[in-house]
Design brief:
Number of helices: 13
Largest sheet: 7 strands, mixed
Shape: globular
Structural class: alpha/beta
Distance between the termini: 17 Å
Mean pLDDT: 97
Helix content: 25-40%
Strand content: 25-35%
Number of strands: 18
């Protein structure tokens, strides 16, 4: 079938993207789903910093590629062998397809699925196929098995989680990445206990989700850090007990003062080694620093090894919120319904597919938390 989709031909185009237009809206061909695959009619898709990292070249991917990895939609067509979904089901899309058979999947860590990681790096679905191509037959790569900046997407069954049909799809879209990654980093990776002190460095969609997750865990102090005062104001509205500009010269001393030596848990969500260093600096002796961001592969974090040992520090990475999506997305939706995760407050703008380059400009400048393309 022919669909409209956002295609990236070349990375590293100059800002502003509204002028250089790195992403082209094209009519492309989408093949029917194969065995174990599903076609989804996309209702809404979120613009995430991970998408921007592909556009600007920080996260190299095979090109040309149909972009998009955070979305919700409606099941349109089932490939052979898919028996646990029905046409019309509402689903959230997840950017790591789980094969269910590799060692990490069997250990209950589907975010580290080995065939899924290999397929995502190659720009294919988990079975190795590409279902997208231009009208002249030129193959198009899939972004992390999703490619949801399009009217329809063919994905592996393992990339889908069924959701309640009465959940607004423009809100449901952010559960597959921002909420799963941010809240999951807090509850699955950090395992923040009741009464802990927490700092979140970087207040995009993932960072603010982590903030919401810390509040839901019952943290006694939740300290928000960012370079933009508008995001600090939103963090306060969402419940942060303190909010500081990352440019403040005495920030580390201030945080250590108000927490009595530093926070027990710090979460870095800014895709910056400097932000990770700041998160580590505000973590107390014996504390845990978690990063869930994806800076350029060449960037290195200068970890102070003696300090790591002498203060019994823990530094952890969290991918996809260290989550089991089929378990965690319904749990997080329940918390949203109970008023404990104000996920809808993260959606700061709804845009059309044709406005995607200007949307990436707003994302690059930090003007938006989560923009959602509504189809």
């Amino acid at each position: 079938m022919k669909i409209r989709a956002a295609v990236l031909e070349r990375m590293g185009m100059p800002l502003p993207y509204a002028k250089s237009r790195p992403v082209a809206i094209e009519t492309v061909e989408l093949d029917p789903p194969g065995p174990g695959e599903v076609r989804v009619k996309i209702a809404a898709a979120g613009l995430c910093h991970s998408d921007l990292s592909v556009v600007n070249g920080d996260r190299p991917r095979p090109l040309p590629m149909v972009l998009g990895h955070e979305a919700a939609g409606v099941v349109d067509y089932l490939g052979p062998g898919v028996t646990d979904l029905q046409r019309g089901d509402h689903v959230a899309l997840v950017f790591v397809p789980s094969c269910g058979h590799c060692a990490p999947c069997l250990e209950g860590r589907p975010a580290l699925c080995e065939p899924g990681a290999a397929a995502n790096a190659a720009g294919t679905l988990v079975g190795g196929q590409r279902r997208l191509h231009r009208l002249d037959g030129t193959p198009l790569h899939h972004q992390v098995g999703v490619s949801c900046f399009a009217e329809y997407a063919v994905v592996a069954r393992g990339s889908l989680v069924r959701i309640d049909p009465d959940l607004p799809l423009d809100v449901a879209a952010v559960f597959g990445c921002a909420v799963l990654t941010g809240v999951g980093a807090v509850v699955n990776c950090g395992r923040v206990p009741l009464g802990a002190s927490v700092a979140v460095v970087g207040l995009g969609g993932v960072g603010l989700s982590a903030l919401l997750g810390a509040l839901a865990c019952g943290a006694r102090q939740v300290i928000a850090v960012d370079r933009l005062d508008e995001k600090l104001a939103l963090a306060r509205q969402l419940g942060a007990t303190h909010a500081f500009n990352a440019g403040d010269g005495d920030l580390v001393a201030t945080v250590k003062h108000i927490t009595g030596g530093g926070v027990e848990y710090a979460f870095e969500m800014a895709s910056s080694v400097d932000a990770l260093a700041l998160a580590y600096a505000v973590t107390r002796r014996g504390g845990t620093t978690v990063t869930a961001s994806l800076p350029h592969p060449d960037h290195r974090f200068p970890l102070p090894a003696v300090n790591l040992v002498a203060e019994e520090r823990t530094v952890k990475g969290s991918y996809l919120g260290s989550a089991v999506p089929a378990r965690d997305i319904p749990h997080f939706v329940s918390l949203f319904r109970a008023g404990k995760l104000a996920v809808d407050r993260l959606v700061t703008q709804r845009i059309a597919l044709d406005d995607i380059n200007a949307g990436f400009d707003r994302l690059a400048s930090g003007q938006a938390v989560r923009q959602v393309i509504v189809f």
